[in-house]
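Bench notes, afternoon.
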Amino acid sequence: MADYDIKELHGKMLDILTAIDETCKKHNLTYYIIAGTMLGAVRHKGFIPWDDDADICMPHRDYDRLIEHASEWLPEHYEMVCAENDSNYPHPFGKIQDSRTTLIERAHLGHVGGVYVDVFPVDGMPRADGAGGCTLCIISTFANYYISHAVIPIGTVME
């Protein structure tokens, strides 16, 4: 059982999500809330009461732009951490975290960060039916983070 106030955690994650939303709008980056974050927004009009993380995804080109400009675009106390900017980072996706906080997510990974929002890059796959465009999918090679349900319905076509 967690020995922290999950409502305080939800408040910090909401602050990060708000900063992400403002940054993405200002710089024309596309993102989507996914997984439990999307379910909580719809079903609970906020967070799932016991959910202790938040997840978004974005097209890979926007993900790469965010990595490149995060230090100038995000508010001062937020940082984007990922394998592209930290060789010791243990995940195949990024996190935007609050540098004023400390959170040990999984001690065995040896990575200490702050309260965060996971940021998954989204890539396209050619459509199976041979039609133009591509099907959006989320793929992670890290088995614990494989997301088998995309927030964007299979069959959504990007031209």
